[in-house]
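**User:** My hope is that you can spare some time for a protein that puzzles me. I have put the entry right below:
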Amino acid sequence: MDVPTTRATLLARLRDNADATAWGEFHERYRELIISVAKRWGLQNADCEDVLQDVMTRVSGAMQGFDYDPGAGRFRGYLKTIATNTIISRLRQKTVARGVGGGGAPEVPDGAAIDEVWDAEWRRHHARTALRRALSEAGDRDRIAFERYAVRGADVRAVAESLEMSVDQVYQVKSRIMKRIAALVAEQVDEEEGR
């Protein structure tokens, strides 16, 4: 797996709407986060995809003439504002479409609820991203051992036996990959905050 482009570099590249590679990376990097937040507010898959496209369109429009200045605020806050405003707009459309007080309309969140959901999903986003990268760096046997034991919760002895490893080796694999995940999350957070 390639090392992710720094956020500042990626944001600078997004000013060129024709840079399909940069937009592809941005989409890949934030797609799951935006959709996860939208799903947490009860939007269906099709609405979540529409929200994602609306967010991408708004970010694209905003990138013209955009100069990333970490001192002016974090990109995380900027993306959160665009994404949550888009989600709220979609939720309000659903409420109006079903009629005020009509059953089945998703709840429109307040500011505190928005922050809570966004922050929780942002942490999960960092963890998922770090997990994928750590597993891509691991050897096949270590990756399989980690996935079976640490992710799926399989019995450590069964995992060890099936992979011709000792129980201690499985524990060591888990420890090594967990440390790598923690280091990757720290790197991602530092990058996000412009450190």
Notes: Residues 1-6 have pLDDT under 50 and may be disordered. The two ends are 23 Å apart (CA to CA). Residues 19 and 191 are 22 Å apart (CA to CA). Helices lie at 7-13, 20-40, 45-63, 75-98, 111-137, 140-151, 156-162, 167-192.
